[in-house]
Amino acid sequence: MLESLQVLNPATEDVVATVPAATARDVDAAVTHASRAQAAWAAAAPADRARLLRRFAAVIDDHIEELARIEVREAGHVIGNARWEAGNARDLFDYAAGGVERLNGRQIPVPGGLNVTMLEPLGVVGVIAPWNFPMPIAAWGTAPALAAGNAVLLKPAETTPLTALRLAELALEAGLPEGLFQVLPGEGAVAGDALVEHPGVAKIVFTGSTRVGKRIMAKCADRVKRLTLELGGKSPNIVFADADVEAAALAAPGSFLDNSGQDCCARTRILVQRSVYDRFLEHLAPAVESYVVGDPADEKTQMGPLISRAQLERVRSYVPSGAGIHGSAPDGPGFWFPPTVLTDAAPTSPVAVEEVFGPVAVVLPFDDEAEAVRLANATEYGLSGSIWTRDVGRALRVSQAVRAGNLSVNSHSSVRYWTPFGGYEQSGLGRELGPDALTAFTETKNVFISTEGSSL
Ligand code: NAD
Fold first, then answer.
1. Which one, 99, 170, 221, 297, has least CB within 10 Å?
2. Quick check: 26 and 191 in contact, CB under 8 A?
3. Could you tell me if residue 423 is left (phi over 0), alpha (psi between -120 and 50 degrees) or otherwise beta?
4. Which one of 1, 133, 183, 212 would you pick to mutate in the ligand 1 pocket, going by the greatest count of ligand atoms within 8 A of its CB?
């Protein structure tokens, strides 16, 4: 068991910070503290809770640049993305604040009385976050959970605890009650597991690998603990011959190279109709080869390093650097891997169906719509995907046939804080974000009140 976590700059391998690692005992104390804070928070007037969450959003807004610079140092994200991520965290708290006074139960017609439903907070919620988007994913769970009247204990990933710790300080600065939102940096198998096992934690929101998600699901089953899972992906990017092929090819690199491919929604399986396959590659190759990889703090950089040596080794185990169509990456210290596209991978090979979580995509040809759909669905995942076509009927047909939670047509953009997000199959369980985000952090209580007098 580690006593502390060493945070490395993935672009230089320099030590950025050393953070004490939370133990099971720390988690237990945090749950006690959070339970007390939650009772008072749930009893507060909705308008007061909303006002405090809005103030938290405003304080985050005042610290966007600082948070973004921390993200660049601890996660190697390019500075433009890091600013967007801090802004996304701000927007999530703002949006959730708008839901506090709108979290209504229903009145349902029944004979002989009045039937109402009440949406009650769950209590203490544990949010376990990955390292690939530390700020947005922390806020995806935390903001709606707090807005619905819960307390939150956030366990960031071992490699990226710093923005989470800063957000907890900013929450106190904004006036959120002590204990309501606490951050517990620590090892997954220690602090994460303690949250999952703790009887005082009513729900776990887990974002991470499918392997760990399954284990957490099994443990939650023991207590019938509420659970949301956001897991892995291996998303298709389907390009039909009737699409604007050049636009599709030029948009493809960003869809799997953004965040160095460490994106659960990365479109890493590019499926191209055979009649336009060569034309697509003619446009794709130079765009991949010229992708700018380097210092993430430089405004002109498009792609930074991978998060860690372990991640670099993982990516290398799927594809040796220098294979396929590829760009370049810095030598020397840091966890660098060049943008890579493989055109000769078999459709069932590991690199074509498993989540690599690096800047690597395969291109596979298909003959017709049925084959495109079959290939798109031929993984254990079902998170995201894109469909490029000018035929509206085909866009709708294929959107219905692809088994994934988040699709985009003639675009790669499908994640917005105000629309629902989540996975089919082994990509997850439940939905986050969107207009129903708060209800995932409530129990529905149904109450019937007789209008026919006492039956005694
Ligand atoms: P991971 O599963 O290794 O770790 C995720 C988190 O779980 C970390 O905080 C880790 O410390 C913790 N953890 C590990 N073992 C644990 C245990 N036994 N009990 C409790 N907690 C434990 O994943 P990762 O490598 O940090 O993140 C990458 C993965 O996350 C990828 O598979 C990616 O697709 C997925 N992801 C999914 C989404 C989504 O929304 N679907 C979004 C981002 C990332």
1. 221
2. yes
3. beta
4. 212
Distance CA 210, CA 229 (A): 9
Ligand 1 in contact with 228 (CB < 6 A)?
no
**For residues 384 and 374, what is the distance between their CA atoms, to the nearest angstrom?**
15
How many Å apart are CA 211 and CA 199, to the nearest integer?
23
pLDDT band at 252 (very low <50, low <70, confident <90, very high): very high
Lay out the sheet containing 107-110: strands in order across: 107-110, 113-121, 442-450
Domains of the chain in start order, with CATH, are 4-231+427-447 (3.40.605.10), 236-409 (3.40.309.10)
For residue 208 and ligand 1, the question of a CB distance below 6 A is answered with yes
Q: What is the pLDDT of residue 101?
A: 97
CA angle 353, 356, 361 (to 5 degrees): 70
Per the annotation, the verdict on 264 as an active-site residue is yes
Query: Quick one: average pLDDT of 359-385?
Result: 98
Residues 230, 265, 355, 432: which is the catalytic one?
230
Distance, CA of 119 to CA of 129 (rounded, Å): 26
Distance set, CA 389 to CA 181, 273, 386, 394, 414 (Å): 45, 11, 10, 7, 17
In the numeric block, which tokens belong to residue 334? 């840091």
Q: Is the CB of 355 under 6 A from ligand 1?
A: yes
Q: What is the pLDDT of residues 161-208, one digit of tens each?
A: 999 999 999 999 999 999 999 999 999 999 999 999 999 999 999 999
At 66-101, the pLDDT tens digits run 999 999 999 999 999 999 999 999 999 999 999 999
The catalytic residue among 264, 265, 355, 432 is: 264
